[in-house]
Design brief:
This protein has 337 residues and is of the alpha+beta class. Helix content is 36%, strand content 23%. The structure holds (3R)-3-hydroxy-3-methyl-5-(phosphonooxy)pentanoic acid (PMV).
Length: 337
Amino acid sequence: MTVATASLVLDRAVTARAHVNIALIKYWGKAPARRPEDANLPAVPSLSLTLDALYTESRVRFAPDARADRVVLDGRELQGKELSRAVAVLDRVRALAELAAPFEVDSVNHVPTAAGLASSASGMAALAAAAARAAGIVDPTTVSALARIGSGSAARSVFGGWVAWDGPAARPVAPVDHWDLALLVAVVDAGPKAIGSRDAMNHTARTSPYYGEWVQQAGATFDAGCAAVAARDFEALVRAMEVSTMRMHASAMAADPPVLYWQAASVGLMRVVERLRADGVPCGWTMDAGPNVKVLCPASAVETVRAALAAAPGVERIIVSRPGPAVWVEPGPMEAK
Ligand code: PMV
């Protein structure tokens, strides 16, 4: 298969910037993979919002004289498992473009220090976009499928605004300016998570009696979330988001041994959100593979929500983000033949 649609960039570095995304309807579980390029195919559909405040920048160049790929993240050369994830993406880029040269990658996370946010989605999306562009591949759907190989949720970070992922690649469902919402991250613990999402979802699939039910109901929750976004129905979106979040966590909690990401402060924050809502402030919570709570609200409610979250016990900091753009690449696809 040939998917190269622009000229190769051999004489200089390519830079790509990709933003973090937060799933409102969750991905948790993989479809069986027989070939390396089928890695991280989702067992359930997910829906996300790309964020403007948090992103990763990757500079990539071909290194024909090097013996192997070299990947530096925030000044640290990756080794072991972290390196092999990145190399899996680079291998697939080489296979698609029918090239053999190693890559040299320098990535920087622009996520506030101690944000407690996984940046693998933005990191793998930036890496995939930059390496693909160097190899002459600029089609966003192909780049999304490449990013997915490094980290499932990275498939969604290739696109801006509201994004669905229900197959080999993600797809945009509504643009950045579709809906004037904000997402606040209440950080209660910025440390590394006890068990990463990849291991935890595989463990859930193997040992949780609720996993089958989770997969079975996911399509209906996804449809409800997509319909709510299309109709800008905030109440319906929050309902689908909280149901998806709770069912994902319930499936993990029922694994053997159980996986519980929450801390006391996380539950406290959910209660704060419920109280705000009871007082007429529109907002809703979600959580991923960690204890930090993400709160969605209309842009007009940000100050009220921020103040209430900041006053809750155990909150270290609040990061406010608006909907963010698609991946940006330099030199851009305008060089396409
Ligand atoms: O693709 P990963 O390994 O980053 O897994 C993401 C899992 C969740 O963040 C919990 C849900 C999601 O859809 O992003």
